[in-house]
Amino acid sequence: TGACKIVMEPLHLMRRSSHLHNLPVHRRKAMKRKKSKSSRKPSCLIPPYIFERSDIYCDNEQLHITIAIIVQDKQGNGNMNHGRGLNMEFLQKSMMRYMSSIVNALPSPSELLAHVASTLLQEKMRDRLPGMNGVAFLANGSIIPRKSGASFAPMASPPAIPFMAPQGSSMTQKMEVDMGKLCKYLKNNGIVREGSDDRTTTKVAVHGLVVPKGVTLVVGGGYHGKSTMLRAIMSGVYNKVLGDGRELCVTDVSAVTVRAEDGRYVNNTNVSAFISNLPIVGSDTRRFCTREASGSTSQAANVSEAIEMGAGAMLVDEDVSAANFMSRDGRMRALVMDES
To answer: Distance between CA atoms of 280 and 301, rounded to whole angstroms?
Structure first.
């Protein structure tokens, strides 16, 4: 065991770990120094979204975990799968220590049930959107701002102001959900249990803002939270962990974010609905191809591709859109003040 060491981690992290281990020694040391100086907490860097994985799952009886075992030369030369000095007894002891750390990190039964109940609530709220003629729902009390532009962690409140739907608006509605036996395990902020006895009731109500189908425009001054609100709507296609602040913000799963992507590759995409003539001999915008699209042509291609893939809603942020593409719409031109 003196010639090598073992790195164990879930399978979905193996590719990243392999890349790091293959870096030169001085690069790895520099990254470690930078990481030690960083004041960011791990929660700031890990996305709060809940995804189904094939390497960690449970059935009715067992928890299944697939582990990637990487054997690395202790000399630090980056050699992978180098087995000198490795024996099964050492491997088994290392595996037992790693599995013990996983078991010790497992949440308590009540915390686990709260996590399951929160995830199921988000699924049920998303299923209620079509009946409310909506594409998204933002719950009152949600903490929408993030700690920084590079962080997934919610901003502390205060200074963050919890979201509140405007009173008297037709977009402000109540969403009712029947949670069954899991209702008593809900720990989400912003829910109201319906019924005289909180211990036996199975229904909860959530008040908030419904974004209806059709064209919805978010307006406001600079640094007033327009893009922050749109990012909360964008993230609503995913279920989120408790504590994210946006757990009760849900969006139709077919919603797609559309923006300009200068330099993207486009192949045989019909953008003729937006662009009819190009200063290129023989070009056909019904079968547009380019290795390096401009801002407007890339956004036109993104819209066409989203429609072709069956997007139920398109989310557009003016800050990252091509101005000449957006101005093609007559309603958009009417919204912009003529300063000439």
So the answer is: 17
One-letter amino acid of 288: F
Q: Which residue has the tokens 């750390």?
A: 101
Higher pLDDT, 217 or 53: 217
- What mean pLDDT comes out for the span 96-109? 81
CA distance 286 to 277: 10
pTM of the model: 0.79
CB 154 within 8 A of CB 220: no
Bridge partners for 145 per DSSP: none
Pairwise CA distance, residues 84 & 1, whole Å: 8
Give residue 57's identity as a one-letter amino acid code.
Y
Cis ω on the peptide bond leading into residue 48 (within 30° of 0)?
A: no
Paired tokens of 260: 């300009």
Interatomic CA distance for residues 147 and 52, integer angstroms: 26
Q: What are the structure tokens assigned to 33, written together?
A: 């120094």
Kindly tell me if the per-residue pLDDT of 3 is higher than 70.
no
Give 112-160 pLDDT, tens digit per residue.
Answer: 899 999 999 999 999 999 999 999 999 999 999 999 888 899 999 889 9
3-class SS string, 181-216: HHHHHCCCCCEEEECCCCCCCCEEEEEEEEEECCCC
Instruction: Tell me the C-alpha to C-alpha distance, in Å, between residue 170 and each of 146, 219, 283.
Output: 28, 17, 47
Neighbours of 121 (CB within 10 A): 23
Residue 53 has pLDDT above 90, yes or no: no
